[in-house]
Amino acid sequence: MNTSPETLVEYGRAIDGHQMVEPPDVAVLELEPNHPGEHDADYVARRRLLFDLTRRHRLERLGPPLIEYTAEETRVWREVAPKLHELHDKFACALYLRAKDELAITETEIPQLKTVSDRLARETQMRLVPAEGALPYRTFYQYIADRGFPVTQFIRHGSHPEFTPEPDMLHDCLGHVPPLMNRDYAELLTLIGKAAATTPRGDHVLALKRFSWFSIEFGLIEEAGAVKVFGAGILSSTGEIPHALFSPAATRRPFVTDTVIATDYDPSQMQTNFFIAPSLPFLRRELEALVRRFGIPVL
Predict the structure, then answer these.
(1) Are 77 and 158 in contact (CB under 8 A)?
(2) φ/ψ of residue 14, rounded to 5
(3) Would you give the distance in Å from CA 137 to the centre of its chain?
(4) pLDDT at 77
(5) Separation CA 47–CA 29 (nearest Å)
(6) pTM over the 0.85 mark
(7) Is 9 within 8 Å of 262 (Cβ atoms)?
(8) Which residues are known to be catalytic?
(9) Cα(289)–Cα(209) distance, rounded to whole angstroms?
(10) Eight-state DSSP code of residue 6
(11) Kind of pairing, strands 226-229 and 13-16?
């Protein structure tokens, strides 16, 4: 990793380190090139409506709006959720399975995030923040520092229900949200948020982003002598789960923090680098040591 706060390397290209600390604010919907729904006028119109609604609720701190989901959106949910449930039972870590069971998100109905947020608030003092799309990392973790977790409220395009190039309801509700029921997980996440929101250095933000990516998003964890899925990005994808655990095209190494924060990645592709943490308390200790090394005053 380039340790200069001014010039950093992210996703294989040089960036201005100040972008990590002062990210741009995207005020209109921007679908990625070759997005599955980019030529579907009805889908784009629906996404714009939900983008404007959830962005307003986020900026005005109104909490998740109630959404009346369409028959097509419900169809996609009912197609993907049972497939993920089957894979979770086999390959997800125990922390996730317990939390998912307690939260009782069903395979048949898209949950209303206001209800889910109220439940999380009672259990771990976390809440859900409506997000119009993928927020810049620093912005995302500024909310988490205040115990708010940004979540989307749209559903991926129905032509490719097994894939999404961006976080959607399936990614968030069947990946990120259930573990928020666990207090230790919530505290780990909150500490990452506080550190990322506090440091003035772009290289520190990038290091914390990579720590989070290879643990919270795409991490594996040891459990009873086996390797299980821990990261939300894996848990929310029917393709990523077997790929992360079994693909010969992927590497799986012990979680060594200095290696992790020096490892770049491409979020638009199937991942090729995975790190295995021995436990959740291990990740907490490693994160605290990193925060102390960076001199970020949040402990």
Answers:
(1) no
(2) -75, 140
(3) 10
(4) 97
(5) 8
(6) yes
(7) no
(8) 171, 176, 217, 236
(9) 16
(10) S
(11) unpaired
**pLDDT digit string (tens) for the chain, length 299 residues:** 434 457 788 888 888 877 788 888 889 999 988 899 999 999 999 999 999 999 999 999 999 999 999 999 999 999 999 999 999 999 999 999 999 999 999 999 999 999 999 999 999 999 999 999 999 889 999 999 999 999 999 999 999 888 788 899 999 999 999 999 999 999 999 999 999 999 999 999 999 999 999 999 999 999 999 999 999 999 999 999 999 999 999 999 999 999 999 999 998 888 999 999 999 999 999 999 999 999 999 99
CB-CB neighbours of 265 under 10 Å = 18
Per-residue burial over 163-172, b if 16 or more Cβ lie within 10 Å, else e, is: ebbebbbbbb
Helix (H) or strand (E) holding 260: helix 257-261
- Asked whether 72 and 153 are in contact (CB, 8 A), the reply is no
Structure-block tokens of residue 34: 């070759």
What stretch of H or E contains 19? helix 18-21
Question: Which amino acid belongs to residue 31?
Answer: L
The answer to whether 251 touches 263, Cβ cutoff 8 Å, is no
Residues contacting 32, CB < 8 A, separation 6+: 165, 166, 268
What is the rounded CA–CA span in Å between residue 298 and residue 181? 23
Q: What is the rounded end-to-end Cα distance, in angstroms, of the chain? A: 25
Which are the contacts of 160, defined by CB distance < 8 A and separation ≥ 6? Answer: 36
Q: Which residues contact 102 (CB under 8 A, 6 or more apart)?
A: 123, 178, 181
Instruction: Copy the structure tokens of residue 141.
Output: 């973790």
Alpha-carbon distance of 193 to 96, in angstroms, equals 20
Cα dihedral value 170, 172, 175, 176, nearest 10 = -170
**C-alpha separations of 79 from 93, 161, 166, 228, 235 in Å:** 23, 8, 18, 24, 16
